[in-house]
Records
---
Amino acid sequence: MKEEYTTPRIEIVEFDTEDVITTSSKSAKVNDDGSIDLPIINMN
């Protein structure tokens, strides 16, 4: 059996910004001014 290596394909996306905030939480609340209230995370 011959094994073949295939180079993975990737896509690099560049953003022209200094501040990027992301969240995947469904409990985050978007305010009227566009700001986002994130849930508190306990680090205990």
Note: The longest strand covers residues 29-30.
---
Amino acid sequence: MNLRQRKKDMMGLVGGLGVVIALGGFVGGWYSPGTTITLTFGVWILGALLVNLFCE
């Protein structure tokens, strides 16, 4: 499997994971709001960085 061809799918997976964390924190009450924001942006930033790193 060529990772360059799967880059768009993997970016979607990272985005979806960030949305799940945000919904779980804000709607589900899993985390405090500050922790939710930190985790959500951390997943989006680090996930996008890793996808770009491994797919290039």
Note: The chain has a mean pLDDT of 90.
---
Amino acid sequence: MLNSLNNQKLMLTELVLEKYKVQSTGADGGHSYIITEIEHNKKTRKLVVLFSNKSDERNLKENIKIQVKGNLEDEGEEYDLIMSNTTIEK
């Protein structure tokens, strides 16, 4: 499911997500984000998906198949993967 466009620490990546949890914060009027697990470099890793547009956040519903595109950051196996500046692809 992982399609990396380069091999740097920060990779523009597209993923299709089917099983995930929608979480939210109370800061700045509240933000929603996704927590899931993906296969990355032959290991199952936790992934936190942060969206660039609040309109994408409002459309999130758990476990509905979505395609997302954003910057995937991997700081090492001891840390969660982070996808930032993410958009939902139509």
Note: The first helix runs from residue 54 to 58.
